[in-house]
Amino acid sequence: MDEGYIKFNCEWIKGASVDISILKEINNWRNKLYQLGLIGAYPDGIGFGNISMREKELNFIISGSATGNINNLNENHYTRVSDYNLDQNTLTCIGPIIASSESLSHAAIYESSPHTNAVIHIHHAAIWKKYIHQAPTTLPDAAYGTPEMANEIKRLFQKTDVEAKKIIIMSGHPEGIFSFGKTIDEAGSMLLELF
Questions:
Q1: How distant, in Å, are the alpha carbons of 29, 163, 179 from that of 189?
Q2: I need a labelling partner for 89 at 20 to 30 A (CA). Which of 9, 38, 101, 153 fits?
């Protein structure tokens, strides 16, 4: 399993932490999902799951790499994605921590859906098994955190009803599920309905 490994070229600019007042909504949902085990860590200690909110245009705040196994996040566990290039597999983030390994997938959702302002990535075996190929599903050869996954997400927005369903099942990433919405409440509530 290569869970948690960053597969893109990241320019991490160490900078100030994100203002905690901005993080209140996102952190409330992150805590709920952690308590439900939808964000967390496997027995080997490798963390899973991440959460983001659009800040402006294509910039967004996302939980940092290797934070899935931390019970309560604070302002030092989030970073800003300020630039990315899906085709070149590059990303720039500014903050106290490097961006999540799923950041390019979040970017592909924001780019494909201008009305989306929040994205959540969770792991849950039963939900994944129930909805694979029932909900919009990526092709099995698209690995997480790669340009192939980003292109798969863009394909789903072009060829399926993913915009209406607000859920993506990652066929090649067992247990991996994305939800998204106009607000963090919409994205989180979608997952609670599935749960």
A1: 9, 16, 9
A2: 38
Distances (CA, A) of 165 to 39, 50, 102: 21, 20, 20
Supply angle C-alpha 109, 48, 115, rounded to 5: 20
What per-residue confidence (pLDDT) applies to 1?
Answer: 46
DSSP 13-55: EE-PPPPTTTTHHHHHHHHHHHHTTSSEE-TTS-EE-EEEEEE
Given a contact cutoff of 8 angstroms between Cβ atoms, the answer to whether 117 and 187 are in contact is no
Name which of 143, 116, 118, 119 is nearest 8 in CA terms.
Answer: 143
pLDDT at 3: 47
Q: Is 111 strand, coil or helix?
A: helix
- Domain 9-194, what fold? L-fuculose-1-phosphate Aldolase (3.40.225)
Rg of the chain taking only CA atoms, in angstroms: 15
* Helix (H) or strand (E) run with residue 159 in it: helix 147-159
